[in-house]
Amino acid sequence: TESLFGQVEAFAGDPILSLNDSFKADPRDRKVNLSIGVYTDEHGRIPVLGSVRAAYERIGFAERPYLPMEGHALYRDGVQKLVFGASHPALSDKRIATIQTIGGTGAVGIAADFLAKHTPGRTVLVSDPTWENHHGLFQRAGFKTATYPYWDRASRSVDFDGMVKALDAAEAGSIVVLQPVCHNPTGVDLDEAQQAAVTDLLVAKGHIVVFDMAYQGFGTSLEADAAFVRRYAARASCLVANSFSKNFSLYGERCGGLSVVCRDRDEAERVLGQLKLAVRRSYSSPPMTGGLLVGTVLGNDDLRAQWTREVETMRNRMDAMRKLLAEEIRKLSNEVDIGFLLNQRGMFSFTGLTEQQVTALRERDGVYLVGSGRMCVAGLNEANVPTVAKSFVDVSQG
Ligand code: PLP
């Protein structure tokens, strides 16, 4: 008899996640994993933050009722203050609708579902390149996606002119996804003047901005990294997805938030209702343990201060590894460019290596980068930097 699912196509898998599987299967001792976007400490381990452990001990395990569709109140309050700053005018006006989401992915997904219902049929523009799931999540919601230029290969920095031209040429009222800090995969961000110029343009065109902030605190500081979002939100309505996966080192707990900045309080209440409906139709309500962990840390002055220092420790380690790699490369060669390593920020560095060079690094030296040339600097440590530097120089010099 014919099988019901005989025609189902195989899923190619996520290229980054399958690379991680190949890494695990690689028998070589000196292999180095710089592919997956996870922060690991100097021993290659995903840290358990002291602030989070303290929150966990405080919470213990008690009854597990459903959380409301919008999530835990303490958590939502924490998201608003962290993303917008406690004294932001939109917060005091009570015109931000915030929900707890299933990670940053869930936040972008609910944003896409919400926009598909309330502002349908618009084009969605994402940066070229970007986190691939931006295309997938908006397409799943029924949108067509297109790109705006972002990366300039020659200068290994932002193609600002290209970006501005494309956003200006797009139909008024398009949906524009922006990563405000620590851009994945390039590691290059707009500077303050560029942020201001883009803000003017986006507001003038009436574009709908979806900020996707997955790395708050990994650039300069928790506060400074949110500056673009905060200034934009003081000018115009926008949506802000944020993730706690990296800055809380809580990948598997799926903690994120979605905030919609509205014109006034009444609009925000109605928008919150629609976000709750979108959640109800999707997964009904968010999970409790992650909600309690993050809510407890953000809602307690001492724990939040401790967490802020722990984020700084992670950021400083990544900055130190960038510098160390640049120095080691310089020791081996004066020809190979290292400026990009120091200019880029956050967890990723776009190396400019070609797919063939990335393959050579992996096959010859066991150094794993993503095919696009993206390197996760959090995978570097003092022990493996010399290996990586040597491979990088060898492959760059052909
Ligand atoms: N958005 C961007 C730009 C990311 O880089 C990531 C994670 O890699 C996410 C969203 C997803 O975050 P989460 O793991 O919290 O779903």
Describe the SSE topology.
Blueprint: H1 15-25, E1 32-33, H2 50-59, H3 73-84, H4 89-92, E2 96-102, H5 103-118, E3 123-128, H6 133-140, E4 144-149, E5 151-152, E6 157-158, H7 160-169, E7 175-178, H8 192-205, E8 208-213, H9 222-225, H10 227-235, E9 238-243, E10 255-261, H11 265-282, H12 288-298, H13 301-332, H14 339-343, E11 348-350, H15 355-365, E12 367-368, E13 374-376, H16 385-396
The structure holds pyridoxal-5'-phosphate.
Pyridoxal-5'-phosphate binds next to helix 5.
Quick one: biggest sheet? 7 strands, mixed
Name the structural class: alpha/beta
Average the pLDDT over all residues and give the rounded result.
96
Q: What percent of residues adopt helix (DSSP H or I)?
A: 40-55%
The CATH class of the largest domain turns out to be: Alpha Beta
Topology as a string of helices (H) and strands (E): HEHHHEHEHEEEHEHEHHEEHHHHEHEEH
Number of helices: 16
In percent, how much strand structure appears in the residues? 5-15%
- Order the strands across the largest sheet as they lie in space: 2-10-9-8-7-3-4
CATH topology of the largest domain: Aspartate Aminotransferase, domain 2
Tally of domains: 2
What is the general shape? globular
Bound ligand species: pyridoxal-5'-phosphate
CATH architecture group name of the largest domain: 3-Layer(aba) Sandwich
Q: How many angstroms separate the termini?
A: 56 Å
Spans with pLDDT under 50 lasting ≥5 residues? none
CA-based gyration radius: 21 Å
SS elements, strand count: 13
CATH superfamily of the largest domain: Type I PLP-dependent aspartate aminotransferase-like (Major domain)
